[in-house]
Design goal:
Layout (H helix, E strand, L loop, with lengths): L2 H20 L9 H8 L3 H7 L3 H22 L3 H12 L3 H13 L3 H19 L6 H23 L7 H17 L2
Helix pairs in contact: 1-2, 1-3, 1-4, 1-6, 4-5, 4-6, 4-7, 5-9, 6-7, 6-8, 7-8, 8-9
Length: about 180
């Protein structure tokens, strides 16, 4: 196997370990040693891919955000988008905690979260084809992303006593009713 492929494989193992540690139920437990132990690699391989812990944490967050964005982009309907996002973020709560909760407790992610948010807003705004006014599109997309972020965060945290079906139906209703409103 070529060196580049081996390096990419090791980087993927480290990112996978980082997702597990950053999104752990007890909160982020990301140290270089913990990541290497979890990935079954030495620190030498960590530093082969990342300059330091902060760069690594941002790479883990970016990986989860990119997967979330790809999931949403592939959806053809609001229902499909919500169901796929629930599968990605709730069925695998570790990823959900990385995306939604880690930026609150991991200072290095404050900026990363702020950088990714406009991407999610722009994606939703492009889907709002029934709304012709671009300013209104942006207002609706921004408010929906904010509301959905709060809902998913509360659901992941266990603060919403809704069944999965109720949660999905509510999110879909929120999306479709807001888009249809004058």
């Amino acid at each position: 196997m070529p060196l580049e492929d081996r390096q990419a494989l090791r980087r993927d193992k480290l990112i996978t370990a980082g997702v597990q540690l950053l999104g752990g139920k007890g909160g982020p437990a990301v140290t270089v040693r913990a990541v290497c132990r979890h990935a079954g690699l030495t620190e030498r391989y960590f530093y082969e891919s990342f300059a330091d812990r902060d760069e690594f944490v941002r790479a883990v967050y970016d990986d989860v955000c990119a997967r979330a964005m790809a999931t949403l982009m592939s959806a053809a309907t609001p229902r499909e988008a919500v169901e796929q996002f629930v599968e990605l973020m709730v069925d695998d709560p570790v990823r959900g905690r990385v995306l939604l909760l880690a930026p609150e407790v991991e200072p290095v992610l404050t900026r990363s979260g702020a950088e990714w948010m406009p991407n999610f807003i722009a994606l939703l705004q492009r889907k709002l084809t029934r709304i012709s006014d671009p300013v209104r599109q942006n207002l609706v997309a921004t408010s929906l992303i904010g509301g959905l972020t709060a809902l998913f965060t509360a659901y992941l945290d266990g603060r919403l006593a809704a069944t999965r079906s109720q949660f999905i139906d509510y999110c879909i209703d929120m999306l479709t009713s807001r888009v249809a409103a004058p």
